[in-house]
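Q: Got a minute? One more chain.
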Amino acid sequence: MRKINSLLFAATFSGMLFSCGGGNDQSTSSSLTDEKPAETVTQPPAETASDQPQVEEQKAEEETAICLWGSVGLRETSDPKSKYLTSIKFGELVTFLGEKKEDGKRTYIKIKSSDGQIGWANEYLFAVDAQRGVVTKEMRIYSKPDFMTKTDKKLAMGEVVAILNNPDIDGFKEVVGKEKATKGWVKSSSTGLSTEQIDLELVGEWKRINDTKDNAAQRVLAQEILDNADYSTSSFYVDLQERFGAEAQVQKIIDEETEEETAEIKEIIEEEISEEQGEEATQSPAPELAPDEL
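A: Always. Here it is, folded:
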């Protein structure tokens, strides 16, 4: 028993010595390198696109605008005294670039002309977000998109108008005429309003023919149009054909000859009546005189 206890004591003492020696080795190794444990640096998470502040550019989409006045000046800036660039004519299409400026009285819009010049003009003189149209037969104007709001105003054949790109309401579309003198609604189903390029191209010549006072000159101008088959699908070509075409000319000659013959016959009849009245006046007996007049 005493022997076993001696062995246990020796084993315990040896373990204690080993434990102390191991600790000194670890401490010595650490002091030689003199290196500090690497510090772990925590980086903040990278900002994603959604975390970064967003800068939105508030700019309207480009839209088509139509000049409603006879001639509008395009200027370099919104200042009406700024450099003059060019003139925009009635019915001319321009591109509204989405920018507006107000000076307290008027609103100016930035536009690009058909030849690429960019400048500013008075917004009131244009129909923005619209398409160009021409009246091919007389149309009634309504003050609202309702059949009960018929007015006395009409769009005459040949008038160029701006058709606003608003959605149709109950079968009506909104139109604006030259200098906004005519503004209202027309029936969407009407065939009297055309946006065809051929009609828009020919309407100017059609008006020029109508404005010519001399009949012979009218026929010459009309024939120039009728000789061009490319215009044959236009409503204005059809109108000229009915008025100045070969058949129309034949009928006109017949009518003119008939009028001349009628005038000649009327003149002959009037001459005969005048002659008869003269003969009666010559052949009538002299009035008898009263006794007191002898």
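A: The longest strand covers residues 93-102.
Q: Perfect, thanks.
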